[in-house]
Amino acid sequence: MQSENPRDMLIVEKQQCPVCGEEKATFTEYEIEDAYAGPIAIFSIKCQACGFKNSDLEFINPGTPAEYTLEVESKDDLNIRVIKAGECEIKIPTFRISVDSTMGSEGFISNVEGVLNRFKAQVELLKNDDELDKEQKTKLKNILKGIEQVIWGEKKMTLKLIDKSGNSAIVSDKVQTKKLKK
Ligand SMILES: [Zn+2]
C-alpha cells in the first residue's frame, strides 16, 4: 500500500558525533517514494565540529537479501539505477576493487555512473598517498584509466552488490539476482 502522506522530515540537532564526540552533529531523516522499491527512509548525519558526514537508507517494505550482478556493456548502462544500503558490499571485480576499502559504509541512491565516480574519487585520493610505491601507484593509475574507459563507453565491466539487508537493488532487466540467506 502506498502512503499518501510520506513522513515529515525529521531534523535533530546537537547530537553527539560518533567521530569527535562533540554534541554538534545533526541527524536528518526523511522518506522518499521510489518507483522500484516503494517508500525508502533516508538517514543522514553531519557534524558541524569535525565535518564528519554519512548517510544510509532503509526500505520501508524490506526486500530479499540478494547478490546482484550487472554487466555494464554500453554508455546506456551507466544510467541504470543503483540503490545501496550501508550494509551492502559493492564490488567491481573487473578492477578488483570493493567498497570495504574505498567507500566506507555509506548508503546511497545513484546510478552506475555515480558509483563509478565515487570509486574514481576514492582511487584519486589513494593515489596521492606518499607511502605508496611505484608499482602500487601504477596499479591505481590503471584502475582510474579503466573506470574512465567504462564511463566513455569504451570498456565493459561487471558490477556486483552483495546485500544481506534486503535494502539494496540494481534496477534493470539485465541484472542477475541470486538470493542470499539472512
Ligand atoms: Zn564530529
Quick rundown:
The chain has helices at residues 99-102, 112-127, 134-151, and strands at residues 10-15, 25-34, 38-47, 53-59, 66-72, 81-84, 89-92, 97-98, 108-111, 157-163, 169-171, 176-179. With 182 residues, the protein is α+β, with helices and mostly antiparallel strands.
Structure overview:
The chain has 182 residues and is α+β, with helices and mostly antiparallel strands. It contains three helices and twelve strands. The strands form three sheets. The chain has a five-stranded antiparallel sheet. A hairpin with a 4-residue loop joins strand 7 and strand 8. The model has no long low-confidence stretch (mean pLDDT 90).
Span between N and C termini?
Answer: 25 Å
Helical stretch count? 3
State the low-pLDDT regions, or none.
Answer: none
* Named CATH topology of the largest domain: Jelly Rolls
The tally of domains stands at: 2
The level-1 CATH class of the largest domain: Mainly Beta
- Report the oligomer: single chain
Strand order of the largest sheet: 8-7-10-5-12
Biggest sheet statistics: 5 strands, antiparallel
Number of strands: 12
Write out the distinct hetero groups bound to the structure: zinc ion
| CATH homologous superfamily caption of the largest domain | ZPR1, A/B domain
Relevant terms:
182 residues, N-terminal domain of TfIIb, four-stranded antiparallel β-sheet, five-stranded antiparallel β-sheet, 21% helix, 3 helices, alpha+beta, 12 strands
